[in-house]
Structures are given as structure tokens and as C-alpha cells.
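This part of the workshop introduces the protein records we will be handling. To make this concrete, we reproduce a full record directly below:
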Amino acid sequence: MRAALLCLLLALTIPLVACDAPLDPTFEVINDEVFASSCAFSSCHDADAPEADLDLSSEEAAWASLQEPSVESTMARVVAGDPDNSLLLQALLREVDDVGQMPPGVTVPDRELDAIRQWIEDGASQ
């Protein structure tokens, strides 16, 4: 009986631990875990009508869009090695006024912000 209870407890807590695990700070993981599942899925930055000309609907589209200048800010979308001057991270942190709240009404989890920050610090490579 105790063994069954322990197994049940482990089965219920392992998914919770996995959700808090750090994300691998690579473009592929960030695209799959953050952009595709939230930004493009919400239709804000999909291929049909990407807000601010930021198409995050696929890895290729996201990479191309992040290389383009922002249409809403004088900040570059991503400055390799410099997360403090990268619009992508600063908008998610809500530290720039000219692009509004990104994403609207939702706080981005720290593990996603940490992965994006680390990816930019590491040179923001594809």
C-alpha cells in the first residue's frame, strides 16, 4: 500500500517539476516553447496578419522577423549579446512604453524570460 501511494505521489509531482525546469536557451527551443505556443498561437504574430510585422508562426519566419528593424520602436528587435537593448526581451519584461504590453494581459513565466535573456547574451544565433 505504501509503495502504491509513493508511486501515485511521484506520478503527480513529476509533471510539476518538469514545468519549472529551465528551458534550453536555443532559438529552436524558444521558438517551439514560447513563440509558437503563445505568440503565434494567439493570432497576434501569426502568418496571416502579424502585428508589428513580427511573424512568429514558424522557426524560419520568426528568425527572419527578428532580424528586421522594429516598426514600433527605435530599438532593434534583437541585439546579439545585449539583452538590455533588445526590444524582444524588454517588451516581454514590460520595460518599453512604445510597444505596449507583450503579451497582452499575460505575464511571461520566468523560465521563458531567462531562456530568451540567455539566448541573446549567448549571441542570439539560429
User: Anything to note?
Assistant: The radius of gyration is 17 Å. Confidence is low (pLDDT under 50) at residues 1-18. Residues 70 and 77 are 6 Å apart (CA to CA).
